[in-house]
Amino acid sequence: MLTVAEPEQRGRIVGRREELAALAEALKRLGSGRTGILAISGEPGIGKTRLLDELAARADAAGHLVLSGRAAELERELPFAVWVDAVADYASSLGPDRLERLVGEQAAELAPVVPGLAGLDGATRLQDERYRTHFAVRALLEGLGGRRPVVVALDDLHWADDGSLELIAHLLRRPPRRGVLLALAFRPAPPRPALLSALGAAVRERAVVELRLGELSPAEADALLGDDVPAPARQALYAQGGGNPFFLQELARTGAAAGDAPRTADGDVPRGVAIALAQEVAGLGEPAQRLARGAAVSGDPVDLDLAGVAAELDEAAALMALDELLDAALLVPTEVPRRYRFRHPLVRSAVYGTASESWRLTAHARLAAVLGERGGSLGARAHHLERSARPGDAAAIAVLVQAGTEAGARAPAAAASWWSAALRLLPDTVETAGERLGLLAVLAQAQAATGQLERALETLGEALARTPAEYAPLRARLVAACAMCENLLGRHEAAHARLVGALASVDDQSSTAAADLQVELAADALYDSDFEAMRDFSQRGLATALDHGETGLAVVAGAVLAFAEHGLGRADAAGEALEAAGERLDSIGDDALAGRLDAPYYLGFAEYFGERYEDAIRHLRRGIALSRAVGQGQFVTPMTICLAHAYEVRGRLRAALEQIEAAVEAARLSGNRQVLCWALTGEAWIAAIAGELGRTRTAGAEAVALLDDLDESIISRATRVHVAAAYLEAAEPDLCLEAMADAGAPDFAHVEPGRRAWLYSVLGRAELARGNRSVAEEWIVRGEEIAAGLGLPHAEATARFARALAQLEAGDAAGAAQTAVAATELADSVGAATQAARARALAGRAFAAAGDNESAVAWLERAESELGACGAVRYRDEAARELRRLGRRVTARRRRAAGSSGLESLSGREREVAELVAQGRTNKQIAGELFLSEKTVESHMAKVFAKLGVSARAAVAEAVGRAASTP
Amino acid sequence: VPTFLVSHRHPAEECPWAFAAWHGFESPLRHRPALCSCHEGGHGLFWVLEAEDEAAALAQLPDYLSRRSEALRVRPVPIP
């Protein structure tokens, strides 16, 4: 809610000269279109709110848009509450159409912070994708900031819910690009790690102005109290209230300083202040006291009608009581009629404390009932029911479950709190056993989604203990989930032991439950790169799954088997396993696949490593779309990471960057360091290929730093080598070699042969870059030896690429040209477009060195055009430089022409739409699949038509078909 | 300059929107009192203002309010 107080309501501000100067400077910067962040911290009553009010008033006077919100002590579980308070009313007044114009296709993702507005439909429903709401709010602020400067003032963040803090952390990491000042006020203790760590990082980046408010000096306190308070009394007040403005004013209000209560902390306030507040409430008439207590229970801000219900006062009595509370300034009006706030949150807390527990309980019950009758929000009803419902109250349980379900996708912490409350109320009987198991399952999922893996493990353990032995398949899934939590906690041995123990306890080793555990053990072996064990377990699991007609499980087993075969260097066997698994996956309908979303996950990865990039893209996209449709997000982030890598190989760097950015955000929110490490590694690599070298260094450094807290596993090893390779692409060969040494060079035990060949080529190129030709030669030979006979053309192309470079350095230009051309053919044969284009550029350089300028120009022009179309800016510029050296002009227009026509000119989303059009989907179907509105799809189609220069869907399909058939 | 009586109405549940909409909106009507029936459940806001024409009168209101308002040209008359 917006609360720009009128000057007389705000009161005088005393002291704070430096802070006011900082506000003025921040507003000046904002006025020139820059974004800023203010962090205002200090003890309760020290004046944080007053300073925020001052900022809001000055910004409003300057014609800026001010959005103010406050977190509330007693409603800490309400999802996005501080953002709802700040944004909802204003955004609602704009309406869904204007929001869509401001935010674009992400508008639907605003629904959690604009809960009362109809027309925001089509958002995804995955906990793992709640960063989408963060992106949407950022886009909204940027959209609003583009029209006029915006101040977002958020108060009392020490009480904010986790969903609100996640959003703030996102904005601290990625502040809106222009025109937004984010002002955050909070108490430093007790600390909220999510807020403080994000702020700490922003402070290190020097992106934040910190204002730590201290006590007023005696002279300032004198000025604050004014001449109405005699000088001796002012001194006594200072002795008792210190330089805390709120305490001083409270003590002065009731003359409590005349007493001799010591300045001892009593909760948040000194005892003298607590006594003063209690006296103030006690001095009110009985109806006013009741209304005040009703207000304290009903919420913040205070809805007069609800406060009256809680207090059991009729309208006339409530209005009379209200007048008394307003006269005493216990409540203050807001700009919305019949809506008030307490003078200070400490006043609300003190009033709440004057009500007995039994009175509060019945007041919450009255509020829950009336909100039910009036169609109040599920969250508000759940809040009051959680505090008042009796065990076994089926209606209350239903509301809590429903509220959790509604909040689950975007605020899993709030959902977990309500599901836990529902479990407490649910009777422990045979009849409710199924419902309890269902609740335990979703609770564990929400806990895992917010990084509370220990709690998730406990919850799963309870579910497992309550699952009878005859439900073996369910027990197997629960065991697998427990093992996954343990693996994510770095307890690989415990996970392995759990799976082995569970498999041993299955009576029928040819049952589907056994097959499930065998496949889990196969995947578990991947952590240790134990390819023999992987093959053994996956073959057993595959045979059993096929015997039982469990096609989804057979896909998982086949995909893991393919990994194992690759690891063992048996490309043919891997290819056969992939072929069969791919056919099986394509034969399964969505309904069946929804129960086995690990199938597209494992298969997509196996296909990526098997260099079947388009198959990988197709299966991963299907897996992601289906996960969204059924609300199961467990595998979405890993699938997104793999999809980004596949796009990079295929030369679709813009789409790759979009996907990897989403994966990084999702991984951050999950609290899962392994997955975050993995996603950041992908970001470092893809950014390097795209020429964003600063991003490569930042993401790479963060990924490597995360490894300090992780066990050694396939993920830690993969992180080190990929970050090292990214450093080479970022022209840092020394860093690359250093990181490679940490990553297990020269042997790279546990790395499968395909990637080992690539790594040796990277090492060879790094040594070449340092001028160590003889050392480079050794690495390159090793890479070539491994790549030969692997049956992985892309891996072989990277080895040839390094060889061609070495030949060129050694002066064998003709040989280098020949080798580079061979590399292009190998890369082209599997559609590795980025690698092929880079090899073409190298071929061009080699032809030029050999004196064949005509061939050189032809190869370089093609390379320059392709690299530009891919989005590999730095490599494109290198090719352009070579062309200029050969006397060819490379104009910006030609470059634009190369990069701005055809499918390459489409954004990631437009390309997705175009591909779905090529598959014969209607706009409505596309809207459903991509979770967009039909209007947004139409808008994308208009851009696709314009960029491709066509006017019919058939022509779009033709363009997509042409691109797919071009390797 | 002509005088207009601008009458605005909104549904009860949208009451907060009608006030939030003013933020960041430049208008001579801001930070001045207006007649309001929201406290009494009427959910209307009323202004007497001067403007060149009806459109100019409504332009003094944010979009949310102007779309739900009518501007009636009025003039003072002596009441017998």
Give a nutshell description of this structure.
The complex is a heterodimer of chains A (about 950) and B (about 80). Chain A is mainly alpha-helical and about 950 residues long.
Kindly describe this structure:
The complex is a heterodimer of chains A (967) and B (80). Chain A is mostly helical. Helix content of chain A is 68%, strand content 4%. In chain A, helix 30 (613-630) runs antiparallel to helix 31 (636-649). Chain B is α+β, with helices and mostly antiparallel strands and 80 residues long. Helix content of chain B is 19%, strand content 28%. In chain B, strand 2 (35-36) and strand 3 form a beta hairpin. Classes of the chains: A mainly alpha (967), B alpha+beta (80). Chain A binds chain B through residues 1-2, 4, 6, 60, 63-67, 89-90, 92-95, 98, 116, 144, 148, 150, 335-339, and chain B through 13-21, 23-24, 26, 31, 36, 38-39, 62-64.
Most extensive interface between two protein chains, with residue counts: A-B, 26 and 19 residues
Order of strands, main sheet of chain B, comes to 2-3-1-4
SSE arrangement of chain B, N to C = EHEEHHE
Q: Write out the strand line-up for the largest beta sheet of chain A, numbering strands in chain order.
A: 2-3-4-1-5
Catalogue the unreliable spans of chain A.
1-8, 257-266, 896-900
Helix content of chain A: 55-70%
Shape of chain B: globular
How can the largest sheet of chain B be summarized? Answer: 4 strands, antiparallel
By DSSP, the count of extended strands of chain A is: 10
**Biggest sheet descriptor of chain A:** 5 strands, parallel
Q: Rounded to an integer, what's the Rg of chain A over CA atoms?
A: 32 Å
| Poorly predicted segments of chain B | none
Cα Rg of chain B: 13 Å
Helical stretch tally of chain A: 48
**CA-to-CA gap between the ends of chain A?**
55 Å
Mean pLDDT reading of chain B: 96
Decide which structural class fits the backbone of chain B. Answer: alpha+beta
Assembly of the depicted chains: heterodimer
Number of strands of chain B: 4
